[in-house]
User: Fold this.
Amino acid sequence: MSAFNWVIVEAECPWCQEMSTFILPFKYGELGYYDYQLGKTLKWGEGETEGRADAHDVLLLSISENPCSRCFSSEEDNGIVFYILIKENTLHSVFPSRNLPLDGYLILDERSGS
Ligand SMILES: [Zn+2]
Assistant:
């Protein structure tokens, strides 16, 4: 029942290599149905949150809500898999993938210290 957010990106389709707009849902930061774009900073408010605001590098998994507008190849595959990289709490970049997804998110900077 919990909410999620989206990041809306222009990215190269991994199937046809054409640029297309993808809507990528993710559950990280404050979960409030926020629409983000790359370069934006995640909100961490008083609502439900997922993850850690102090993480340096985080990799999220997302599956696009929409197919590629050029080749529509994802219609048979329930969306295109994307990895979303968050650096210092900012939506840094996305990497489309033809591989099967991981699950949830991965904090890349688990090192010692508070
Ligand atoms: Zn395509």
Remarks:
- The chain has a mean pLDDT of 86.
- DSSP finds no helices and nine strands in the chain.
